[in-house]
Amino acid sequence: MSLAPPLSPGFAAPATEAQRCFRALLEAMSRPGRVRSLPAPAAPPAPLGPAAAAVLLTLADADAPVWLDAGPAAEAWARFHAGCPLVAEPGAAAFALATGAPPALDALEAGTEEEPHRSATLILQVAALEEGAGWRLSGPGIEREHRLAVAGLPEGFLAQWAANRRRFPRGVDVILCAGVRVAALPRTVTIGEQG
Amino acid sequence: MSAAPGYNFAYLDENTKRMIRRALLKAVAIPGHQVPFGSREMPLPYGWGTGGIQVTASVIGPDDTLKVIDQGADDTTNAVSIRRFFARVAGVATTERTAEATIIQTRHRIPETPLREGQILVYQVPMPEPLFRLEPRVAETRRMHALADYGLMQVKLYEDIARHGHIAISYNYPVMVNGRYLMAPSPIPAFDNPKMHRMPALQLFGAGREKRLYAVPPYTEVRSLDFEDHPFRPPRAEAACALCGSRESYLDEVVTDDRGGRMFLCSDTDWCRQRREAAG
Q: What is the ipTM score, two decimals?
């Protein structure tokens, strides 16, 4: 019998680190397109990135089922540190975490007209996030326009987003993660092409 | 200052905070929509700001500076005890100055000093449902929000005009958020409503007894309901503050004796003090 490799640690100080993480997420969600850095756990199992792992530790628990595509090591890590149930279908998850090709936005729970808050959040790992160039974002939380450049998004994301935007108040919210950096796209945001 | 031993940071356990945090993120993503949450029993009764306290406890960190106001005043019982509560269980710095605070918990006022980015305003809300006096069935109000069917409220405003000649709502004046959701701004005076419109700070609302929270993101459109021929006019007492002379701030009327004597004072004590200090 071989011993499983030891799990890498979660937050060193759960209460304060989760709080700092949540505040950064709240800032990101209320000012779409602004990039924030998270206090991240030391070395989450690959391919789980530090920011995506920190988001899981901050928001997932026994009441928030998670779908993730990061393999058995990451699943064991999430189960141990966040204590969250892992589901096989993205549509059954409160948080869907994609390190590779993400599930289609319309495959995730979008809530109902009466209870639009019962919708999933997609945590999407991308290659890079940069403020000041790229997309032109507008909507609540944005004074005039925020610019956000995202590298490594799946093809057709903008079309999916436009469809997600149209079904408001139903819809999926997205947290983009790159390294320790995050930016958020709440369902209210309108994404204009670059240029 | 450090937190008292024996409590988790900011009093609530981590599971509760996570539940409230998830609800807050959804509330921000759907501006003006009421999100239910598992309101906990707090060491003070419902009606004393348990909703606001639970929101503040889920948001606050060791680096924050907290200001608490009750009807604009920093020195009333509710404000003092909530400020002390967080100084004790979270070890945070507290202040009475609006500009120095990163989180402002409020009961029924918005400070006169304009808020800025980086600040969070947390409202204590007694009744989150703006339609509850018109439609008591929760299932029905939920459907009305789903359909954005707010004709009932327009009729109520119309009846006010027919009966009184003007819209007779002086506080908790209903607003439309981002053109979609009808929202109760908590019982702030209608005078404060325009401050909510495109405010640079994030606004969070917590109703502890009713177990719901909602949010208005920064720079979001908040319109007070009205009619083209009866536009919204924020009411204000026709007087100047007896202490600082302000003719712009919201005033409290204070009875000074039993012979009809009265004076008007700024409701925002911090703003009034600043003006008096500046005047020398």
A: 0.96
To the nearest whole angstrom, how far is the Cα of B262 from the nearest Cα of chain A? 43
Question: What radius of gyration do chain A's Cα atoms show?
Answer: 16
Indicate the DSSP class of residue B98.
G
Q: Report if residue A8 sits inside a domain.
A: no
Residues facing B262 on adjacent strands: B255
Residue B266 is among the residues annotated as catalytic for this protein: yes
Q: Tell me, what CATH number does A147's domain have?
A: 3.40.50.11310
Annotation says B32 is catalytic:
yes
The answer to whether residue A195 scores a pLDDT higher than 60 is: no
Residue with tokens 């889920």: B58
Give the chain A residue nearest B212 (alpha carbons): A117
How many helices (H) and strands (E) would you count in chain B?
7, 12
Residue A121 lies in a domain: yes
User: B14-133+157-224 has which CATH code?
Assistant: 3.40.50.11310
- Inter-residue contact B60 to B90 (CB < 8 Å): yes
Binary contact (B218, A143; C-beta < 8 A): yes
**Has residue A150 been placed in a domain?**
yes
Tens-place pLDDT, residues B96-142: 999 999 999 999 999 999 999 999 999 999 999 999 999 999 999 99
Show residues of chain A in contact with B200, CB under 8 Å: 143
CATH 3.40.50.11310 in chain B: give the residue spans: 14-133+157-224
Rounded to the nearest 5°, which phi and psi values hold at B108?
A: 75, 20
Euclidean distance between CA atoms B182 and B164, whole angstroms = 23
- Show Cβ contacts of residue A169 under 8 Å, excluding neighbours closer than 6 positions: A111, A113, A116, A187, B30, B33, B146, B180, B181
SS3 A61: coil
What is the arithmetic mean of pLDDT over A77-97?
97
For residue B219, the chain A residues in CB contact (below 8 A) are 140-143
Question: B97 near B270, Cβ under 8 Å?
Answer: yes
pLDDT band at residue A102 under the 50/70/90 scheme: very high
Provide the token pair at A194.
């670059």
Number of domains in chain A: 1
Residue A4 in any domain: the answer is no
The pLDDT tens digits for B193-211 are 999 999 999 999 999 999 9
